[in-house]
Structures are given as structure tokens and as C-alpha cells.
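Project standup — Tuesday

K.O.: blocked on the structure for the chain from last sprint. Re-posting the sequence here as requested.
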Amino acid sequence: MVHVRKMSEADVEAVSAIRVRGWQTAYAGILPGSYLEAMTVESDADQRRQWFSLPHRQSVDLVAVDAGVPVGWINYGPFRSGESGEPGVRTGEINALYVRPDLTGRGIGRALLGEAHARLRGQEYRAAVLWVLDGNRGARRFYERAGYRADGPTQTEVYDGLAVAELRYRHGW
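H.V.: unblocked you, prediction finished:
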């Protein structure tokens, strides 16, 4: 049985492993193999430790834990930039959500997303947005089942010279 709690600095290595393996699994065939192969848990953990120690971060990290071990991670916070959709609606953003690849489909992602939503609602946010790679059909289905819908805006990120489209999804409550 997993439970969700706030991430601690002691979770950095486990979260980096979840994130790197998640990218390498979910984005295979979408992002260049050269980009995915160059990712390492060590470099991600170094970056995450630096980021985690920033004193005035506005985003929050949560982990899903099973038997004392992190098996999933979510980062959320205020909407970071641009027009969030409905004027006057305080909007949060899901910045990242990853589950250990061998444990997908077991409700861990739903538990993390549900807890992030509950915390955002508790802070008087009335909607959340997130960005998902256009070609990531599994993630798109997951977010659609959770009540998210593509709401129009797109952006492009470049990975090792390949431009990849991202769609913005929105969920209101």
C-alpha cells in the first residue's frame, strides 16, 4: 500500500532514479535515443539537490512511498508563465509526474495527482495545467482519465536537434 508524503532531501537519489528511468521508458521512440542514453541518475541527483536546497522555491515535491521506498514523484506549484486559461481563476501547474516504470498502472500516479490536486484546492487554486508530449499517448490517456483536457496552447522543446511538440492540458474543479 503506497502513501504520499512530502519529499525530503534523503529521497533525492530515489527520485532521480524514478525520473531518469521514467524518461528513458516513456519517451523511447519520441525523443532521440542519444538524449535519453546521456541521462544519468547521478547528474540528475546533483541538479535535484541544488534545486531542492533553494530557499524560496514555490513548487512542492511529493513522493509515493511503498515499504519505505519512493516509487513515484510529483512536483507542482503555481502556474509558471503565460496565460493560464480562464482570467481570474487561480491556476496551479503540475510540473512533473513520474512513477517507477515497472509499477505503472497500479494507481501510484493517481494517488500522487490526487494529493497534489487536494493540496492545490486547499491553497485556493481552482484549476491546474500541465504540459505533455504530443507523442506520449499513454500519458495523454492517463491525464484525460483524470479529467484533464487539451485546451489549445502548444509549445516546442528541442532535444538533440529534434523539435518535439507539447500540448497543454487543463483541469478545473
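K.O.: great, moving the ticket to review. The chain has a mean pLDDT of 95. The helical segments are 12-26, 33-38, 41-52, 108-122, 137-145.
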